[in-house]
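Model it.
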Amino acid sequence: MYPLLRDSSDEKYLFEANLRNDASSKFAKGNRSALFPSFSLGWRVSEERFFEKLKEHVSSLKLRTSWGLVGNNRIDNYQYLSSVTVSPKYNFGNTIVNGASFAAVNTDIKWETTAMFDLGIDVGFLNNSLNITADFFNNVTRDILIGLPVPGMFGGGSPVQNAGKVRNRGWELNMNYRFKTGQVEHFVSGNVSDAANEVIDTRGVEWINGADVNTIIKEGYPINSYYAYRVNGIFQNDEEVAQGPWLDGITPKPGDLRYVDKNNDGLVKESDDRFILGDNFPHYTYGFSYGFTWKGFDFSMFWQGVGRRNVWLRGESVEAFHNNNEGPVFDFHLDRWTPNNPDASYPRLTVGAESANNAAKSNFWIQDGSYLRLKNAQIGYTFPQKWMRKVYVKNLRIYLSGQNLFTLSHIKGGWDPETTDGGGRIYPVSRVISMGLNIKF
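Modeled.
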């Protein structure tokens, strides 16, 4: 890395540039090395003479921007080398003869590169006791190292190639404020941010991943977007069942979920009737903290949450009698469909093969994953030093703290809204309350 720094003597104008040269043995000779430049610019507007009249209202103002390239080489070793595997393959009478198989490779793979751009502003008010920071960022990753799917008849696997392009762009807003009311000192801070992910280029190829939860990688959509059927109510009687549509190979009954027939051919099939149904990326991530100190007492708390997120829950986390009566039954299963409860929020209860229709992958299992959580809170007291000197102690503080004390969430079944596991097979988040004592001699 070769840094270059320039700034004026009064630090009104700031400039920094770097040139990084990275090399990796994961690429063939000729592609092992790559240059990654970056620079940043800053202008402290509040230090200009014309700004003096505004300082009564705006204590400080800084504009800044940055741009840079970073590389990625996180692939398995020796992907550019063709390998030969010899193993028993053919029978000739009582003799087994070895056969050789060859893995297809791409000798031209090179560094994956992300171009990162940021534009920001820092503003201070009330003699810089109130500070606000805002940022906009746009990151584009190109030459992504992936193994694009190839037809199975090729037989040589999916060689790694520089074949993808993805964009992430968004914004972030931060605020912190310190002030006093009498003998109480307060501090408040908060932040909120959002980012949008988009697959720009996969050379026209799209592919579906996952087993219990299906995701798709497709140009124009977030990476690994949910891909499933869309529910269109519940069959109420035999007449509605006869009208369909039906899942291919399954005959539904009254009380079963009805799915959208995307192409109106009378059958709902994976090949042509699935929809892109959002993704599980958190949006509008926010946090808020507050605290104060007063005559040896101190208090602080931190709240954190997500304003919008989709969570696909599957298996025993939401399905009644999952795995042939192996899974649990939750309170929301009580509002199940019956002839006397046609407006139920849950379809009829089923076990085993009867569950095939309702357990199909659909947006019925995708829930609102937004939440607000009190991550931690603490209250403490520091004893006066004049008391501590008598017992030869420099500092003594006692405190009571708690973690994960309170959560507001829309997810059914009481599952942790921060989970990334759709089946509920995770250790639950614990609420922790503790007391402590800090002593300095």
